[in-house]
Every structure is written in structure tokens, then in C-alpha cells.
Amino acid sequence: MLKLAVFDFDSxxxxxxxxxxxxxxxxxxxxxxxxxxxxxxxxxxxxxxxxLRVGLLKGLDFSIVEKISHNLPxxxxxxxxxxxxxxxxxxxVCFSGGFRVATSYAxxxxxxDADFSNVLHHKNGRLTGLVGGDMMFNFSxxxxxxxxxxxxxxxxxxxxxxxxxxxxxxxxAHADTRVAFCAREILQKEANIIIDEKxxxxxxxxx
Length: 207
Known about the structure:
By secondary structure, this protein is of the alpha/beta class. Helices cover 39% and strands 22% of the residues.
């Protein structure tokens, strides 16, 4: 019986990449999204790509960051799917290589129990180009899921994970139910449930 569900945020619970929306404000959307795509496809080290992308955002007004983060397009079926999983007695958590300004805001809207993500450093109302937090490395999601399983006394047979990119691979290693959601090929190879439609309720039909 499943007891823990861990979802990625960008392009999983949310339809798009938060950092790409920020980059569009600075007119560097194409540059940042190409780095994001390379990282999600496993062609770039996640830590290096994160530092590089956030560095390009230096100077962006933090009030704009907050406004964008509070108006993101959530994935179809996200609210319904999380509600149903919780109804089945599961703890639902969000792991994101993105940013707490978005994931913490979305928590009560989408209904998950906790979020682990990164923090955009800002000073005097503007981004400094620096970032820190829980999900900085390729191994971060796997590292955190082990800690959660230990705290909750839950094993991998009782764990579902869902994501779309290469930085989700490390958590896939610690769950028996592995959902690749509109995912890159590198993640699909490690999944046992593949959803190609942008509707998270499709997961409920498979578990």
C-alpha cells in the first residue's frame, strides 16, 4: 500500500519552468530555457546549470519574482490528484530544483503537505544572482527522500515518485512506483508508469 507520494514541481505540478518565466522578464528566456532543457535531459550537471541560470537573473526586481511565482499555471489535475492521494492516506510532498517563492505559495493551493526547494537570494529588493537550499544537486532528491522515508518509517515499496527530468533520477532509485510525467527519455527509461498527457489524474488510473 502506498503511503508517500513525492512530486517534482516544474513541468510536473506546474505547467512550465518557473525560472524560464523569470528569464522572460529580462528578455533572456531562450538562453535560460536552453540551459534548463540541457539540465533536464541529463546533458549538464544540475548544480552547475542552476548556478548559471540564477546568475543570469541578477538584478531582477524581487517583487516581479513574487508576482510571477504567485501566478503560475498549475498542471491540469494537480489539485484533484493530490486530494485523492491524501484521501487514500498518503503523505504528499513536493521536491523542486526550483524555488521556495513558488513551491511554498503553491502548497496550500495544490494541497501537498510539505515542500523542499531552493531559495533565491535577494538584497535591496533585487536578485543577487545567488541561490541556496535543499535541492541544489543531482543527488538532492534521492538524499531527501531517504531522510523522509526514515522519519515517516516508510519503505520504497510504499513510495510513489513523479517527475519529468534528469534531476528526478536520484529519487526514482528509492521508490517502487516511478511515474515519468511528460518526461525526458532519460527518466522514462527508469519509470514503470509513463504518462504522456498533461493531466495528473491519469496517475490515479495506474495505481
